[in-house]
Automatic annotation (TrEMBL):
One of its GO terms (biological process) is porphyrin-containing compound biosynthetic process. It comes from the Bacteria. GO terms for molecular function: uroporphyrinogen decarboxylase activity. It holds the Pfam family URO-D. This is Uroporphyrinogen decarboxylase (URO-D) domain-containing protein. Transmembrane segments: none annotated. Residues 173-350 form the Uroporphyrinogen decarboxylase (URO-D) domain.
């Protein structure tokens, strides 16, 4: 545990670690499937969840805890959720939703928090669209389920970190979204926001500015620590025109990351899709921002960001499914040769592994073992 923790603290301190740290990321859905359990059953009755997680820990190398559960279905069911709905295949889906109606923009701009509580939540959760007494009871039940689920998960995490000696650095110490992303994902939806930026651009700009302080508050860690980070998945930027990115996305997002940094908190960005046309913007963020890249040019990223930020990702899960074992290992070596020199690099795949059939298990193990034994700076 001490050695693995040191790998990441050195990485964050700008020192050259003993070797390249590894952060494997498997979801609870993968773990349940991989352990041969019923995906639908175990998510509702989590008695066997620890055993599922433990099988991942036993079989796949990582320097940090390799498996976690981000959303459990129980509290969404109690709330009558429209934005997170359990699918027939056992996977929680995020349908296109409209939590904020277009005529409610002014209310949101005036007070984002009040508008979310009074208007958005009843729109997104049918059981909260009720009289005050019923709404309070539903919220109390859902919050009890939420805390019960999380307390159980934290117990499992603690057990596995102690048993397997994982590092104690957390890149998921808190969570929030870029202001434009929260407006898109939960409030207006992809289709509506795409129309809004053309039809009512001033209101969109005012809305992202208004919600920025709320996102800083949401992303504030309970116990700030420079070796932990606030997780921010980046969604909409690659789908925006350059001038729309510059006006609606970047200023509030930069203010969010800087606002967290001013409070002593590091940001961990999942740079989804291809950000290469916006790579110079990322260079402006506070030094030591951690980034996992999904797609793009690793050489360009190393050139533009490698001296200031901490970089991971780029390894395609698709190769683990389709490539030979040697091809998979060769890809890990190629990325290490590009990204490791000079430090500031950790190994992780380009996205979390969600299903047991999305990768070749032997290839996945082989790559992680190769990196653990051979990847140096």
């Amino acid at each position: 545990m001490a050695e693995r923790t040191q790998l990441f603290t050195d990485l964050i301190d700008g020192k050259i670690p003993k070797r390249v740290p590894i952060m494997s990321m498997f979801t609870h859905e993968f773990a349940i499937q991989y352990a041969g359990m019923d995906l639908k059953k175990v998510q509702w009755d989590t008695t066997d969840l620890e055993a599922c997680f433990e099988k991942v820990c036993e079989d796949f190398y990582s320097d940090l805890l390799p498996v976690s559960a981000f959303r459990m279905p129980s509290f969404y069911k109690i709330l009558g959720s429209r934005n997170f709905v359990m699918g027939s295949n056992g996977f929680l889906q995020h349908p296109e939703v409209e939590g904020l109606k277009v005529e409610e923009y002014d209310d949101f701009i005036a007070s984002p928090y009040n508008c979310i509580v009074e208007k958005v939540l009843p729109n997104l959760y049918s059981e909260l669209n009720a009289d005050p007494v019923t709404r309070s009871i539903v919220m109390a039940k859902a919050f009890k389920a939420y805390t019960d689920e999380n307390n159980n998960l934290f117990r499992i995490y603690g057990n596995l970190i102690g048993k397997y000696g994982y590092g104690t650095v957390s890149l998921f110490a808190a969570f929030c979204e870029a202001p434009f992303d929260i407006l898109t994902d939960q409030l207006r939806g992809f289709k509506n926001i795409s129309m809004d930026v053309r039809r009512i651009p001033d209101k969109v700009e005012a809305a992202v500015n208004a919600v920025t302080p709320l996102m800083i508050k949401m992303g504030t860690q309970p116990f700030p620590n420079k070796y932990n980070a606030t997780f921010i998945p980046l969604h909409m930027a690659p789908y925006l025109r350059g001038k729309d990115f510059e006006r609606f996305y970047w200023p509030s997002f930069k203010k969010l990351v800087e606002g967290l940094a001013e409070k002593g908190m590091r940001s961990y960005l999942f740079v989804e899709e291809d950000w290469m046309r916006y790579i110079d913007y990322l260079a402006e963020l506070p030094a030591g921002t951690v980034m996992t890249f999904e797609y793009g040019d690793p050489k360009l990223v190393k050139e533009k960001l490698g001296k200031k930020h901490i970089i991971g990702g780029f390894y395609p899960l698709t190769l683990l499914k389709t490539g030979t074992k040697q091809e998979c290992i060769d890809k890990a070596k190629e990325l290490n040769d590009i990204l490791a020199p000079g430090g500031g690099y950790y190994f992780t795949f380009d996205k979390a592994i969600i299903t047991a059939d999305s990768v070749n298990i032997d290839n996945t193990r082989a790559v992680l073992d190769y990196v653990a034994n051979n990847a140096n700076y």
